[in-house]
Amino acid sequence: MQPKELMQKFIYTLVAVDILIVFWYLLSRLLNTPALPTPLTAFNSFVQLVTNELVPHVVISFYRVAVSLAISTVLGVPLGLFLGKNTRADEFSAPLIYMTYPIPKVVFLPIFLILLGIGNLSKIVLITLVIFYLILVTTRDAARNLPREYVLSVRSLRANELDLYRHVYFPACLPAILTSLRLGLGMAMSVLFLVETYATQEGIGYFIMNSWSSLAYDKMFAGIIAMGLMGFLLYLLLDACEKVLCSWVHL
Amino acid sequence: MDYLSIASLQVSYVHDNQITPALRDLSLSLAIESTGVIIGPSGCGKSTLLGVLAGLNQNYQGTVRINGKAPGECDETALILQEYGLLPWKTTWDNVKLGLELRGFSKQETVLRTEKILDKLGLLHLRKRYPVQLSGGQRQRVAIARSLVLEPELLLMDEPFSSLDALTREELQDFLIELWQETKLTILLITHNIEEAVFLGQKIFVMSECPGTIIKEYTNPLAGDYSARGKMEFLELANSLRSSLRGWN
């Protein structure tokens, strides 16, 4: 990217942040309640907490989200490509996916807590399950709708099945996969908050709920800022991946 | 000697438990180092035929021989499609070398041959571009380069120039003739453009409506003659073809 473009992007981001803060400030003044402190109070406590109390919570939350994203990608992408490519397997599995996809996976939280314990495992499994479906369905649909001509022309060069995945299906579906990852990230953050409010004393979700129950609203907002920043950074990371891996889309 | 021979080829598709014949009793033959053009109405099974010849569809009845071998065993064929043939996520360079990569050529050999063919077709300066950054004519040249890099003996082309504007199309037709004179490939091309058929085909095969079969065969001495375009004989043959296609005789 050109330095000029980068500068422009930076300025736009800054303006967006300013708009958010102004909106927040006006709202807090308007409501005039301790539950919604002004941005200044919240950022103050964020700066105070970020170096000590917040760090371990952010680290554990980041770990849970990152591992879940990685596992669901590793499982969802190959399976999605396989189903999109093989009509038979797709037809066979479609009813199963359609029946289980709309079930809100968070209802399984109590079961996972019983079966997998209250450690990281149950949380990661639940987040993974939610994003896995999203990635699976998006990847499968992208592979399904791939123009047949690409496959034919590469097959006529004597490509075997593995070559087709490598040179045609995977690169063709990569933009869709990255889009599903970005959407999945948003969902992962919400599920993360939910799983961290039960039976745990670690994680940014716990931090927020704990501050809330001790009526420390400025602390609570410091936690919310931390969570927002974490999502934003992960989002930027995925964005950068897309720029590098799918440069051909943006020509 | 016939390089390509097809005898009573029959292909059917099964869709919703119904059998739809696509090709019936199709026979044709093409001499080595010659050009043949297949022309026919849309949906007559022309692409099905090329699919069989390229070894993509093994589910057929009848005999198909390319240099004495069945299409699936024959590594000397190359297929060029109208559109979508090039992979949009690969640069010109990566698209062209793909065939060599898939056939397990060494890295050195791949680079050498890719560079040679791109240079020959005047595409070397476009090697870092993606297909969307190329014009229609350039794209089709890259597709031709990708086929030629494998040094095929039989070039199969499915309406290769139909999405190009008139001038670019003629330019590429000339280019194809030059290429043919130089390399002595055997070329089988599908088109729905009558002038293109007369300019490119030493043999012209007219196909019927679906299920397709050859209803008429022309031997065309005008093929590849640049000055022939606009000549009386050229127009007469084109007219004759036109009436065959309309089923007037």
TrEMBL record, chain A:
Pfam families: BPD_transp_1 (PF00528). CDD domains: TM_PBP2. The chain crosses the membrane at residues 10-27, 62-84, 124-143, 220-238. It is a multi-pass membrane protein. Keywords: Cell membrane, Membrane, Transmembrane, Transmembrane helix, Transport. GO terms for cellular component: plasma membrane. Signal peptide: none annotated. It comes from the Bacteria. Residues 58-238 form the ABC transmembrane type-1 domain. GO terms for biological process: transmembrane transport. It is found in: Cell membrane. Belongs to the binding-protein-dependent transport system permease family. This is Aliphatic sulfonates transport permease protein SsuC. It comes from Sporotomaculum syntrophicum. The gene is ssuC_2.
UniProtKB/TrEMBL annotation, chain B:
GO terms for molecular function: ATP binding; ATP hydrolysis activity. Keywords: ATP-binding, Cell inner membrane, Cell membrane, Membrane, Nucleotide-binding, Translocase, Transport. It holds the Pfam family ABC_tran. Residues 6-234 form the ABC transporter domain. SUPFAM superfamilies: P-loop containing nucleoside triphosphate hydrolases (SSF52540). It comes from the Bacteria. The keyword Repeat does not apply. InterPro entries: AAA+_ATPase (IPR003593), ABC_transporter-like_ATP-bd (IPR003439), ABC_transporter-like_CS (IPR017871), ABC_transporter_ATP-bind (IPR050166), P-loop_NTPase (IPR027417). This is Taurine import ATP-binding protein TauB. It comes from Sporotomaculum syntrophicum. The gene is tauB.
